[in-house]
Structure formats: structure tokens, C-alpha cells
Amino acid sequence: MLYGDAVKVSERGYVPYGWQFPDEQVSIPANRGTSINCFGLLARDNRFYYKNTEKNINADFIIGILDEFSFKIDKPTVVVLDNASPHKAKKVRELFGIWQSRGLYIFFLPPYSPQLNIIERLWKEIKEGWLRPQDYVSADNLFYALDRVCAAIGSQIFMKFSDFNLN
After folding, report:
1. Which of 77, 35, 72 is nearest to 57 (CA)?
2. What per-residue confidence (pLDDT) applies to 167?
3. Taking the chain (167 residues) in consecutive chunks of 10 residues, what is each chunk's mean pLDDT?
């Protein structure tokens, strides 16, 4: 079973919170501009399959990644998705039969239940910890850093899902 979803990483940076001393100046340079989208499929054993793009993730992108993935599996595999419109688009649903013949099954989470999709935790870790402030200096740096982080998942970087309370 793999959990799928997309995330947008923007040059604007990610600062969920911060603090500073009263006499201290703290700043993180931020650019307005390029966003990088990543669609990933994550298993609890840290197998991770992903594609990064500067384009929007739409139904055609989802079809491309799921179709490509369906040729790489060697046993029945379930992909858990949320209810995002590209995931549930008619042209995506029309391919369910073909994917099922290859052993790929799609399961949709109930609406408004991101806590059930473990890949949400991965996106948070990438934005809060694995991408560094200096990675946001330029679109090229950010694209490279995101790709390197994604490539390291399952080989050098690991999620410990038992450590997280998904409630």
C-alpha cells in the first residue's frame, strides 16, 4: 500500500513559526516566483516514488505518474489518494480498469481526512526540516534541493511512522 498526494514548494519559503531576541534582526530572503510541485507515492517502509514539475499537477499528470507506476509493480498494490479534483477526474477514473488489470488499485480517503494520509507527514518534514533556508535562494537551488531530498527518501532519509500520532 502506498499513499499518494502532491505538495507545492515555493520560493517564498516555509516559515511556520519563529522567534528572535528583542535586539536581534532575523530575516530569510524570499523570492516571489517559481513553485515546484511534487507528486509522490509513499509506503510505510519508506519506498518512495515521485515526480517533480514546475507545471501544475492536473489529471493528465496524475494519469502519467500512475500509468508509469503501474508498469513497475510486481504484485497487487493499493494507492491511497485524497479527494483532490485531479485524483478523481473522469479521465483518471476511466483508467481504473486498465490499472487493475496490472495490479494497481486506487482507494480514496473519506473527504476532509488528511490525517489518514501518511504522505502529509512527509511533506511537513520536507518543508520544515529537510529543505534549508539557503535552498530557497533561487528556483534552481530549490528544484535541485527538493529533488535531492526526494531521491534520498528510503535510502538515506527515513520516516518513522510509529513515532507520529496521526490523530
Report:
1. 35
2. 47
3. 94 65 72 84 96 95 97 97 96 98 97 92 92 87 95 93 55
Residue 154 is placed in which grid cell?
528510503
Whether 79 contacts 5, CB under 8 Å: no
Residue 29: its pLDDT value, please? 60
Q: Letter for the amino acid at 14?
A: Y
Structure confidence at residue 13 (pLDDT): 62
* Rounded CA separation 7/159 (Å): 17
Beta strands 104-108 and 77-81: pairing type? Answer: parallel
Domains, the chain, ranges and CATH? Answer: 2-155 (3.30.420.10)
User: How far is the C-alpha of 86 from the C-alpha of 29, rounded, in Å?
Assistant: 33
- Cα-flanking dihedrals φ and ψ of residue 69, to 5°? -65, -35
Secondary structure class of 134 (helix, strand, coil) = helix
Q: Is 141 exposed, middle or buried (0-12, 13-18, 19+ CB in 10 A)?
A: middle
Residue 69's CB is within 10 A of a number of other CB atoms, namely 19
- pLDDT at residue number 41: 98
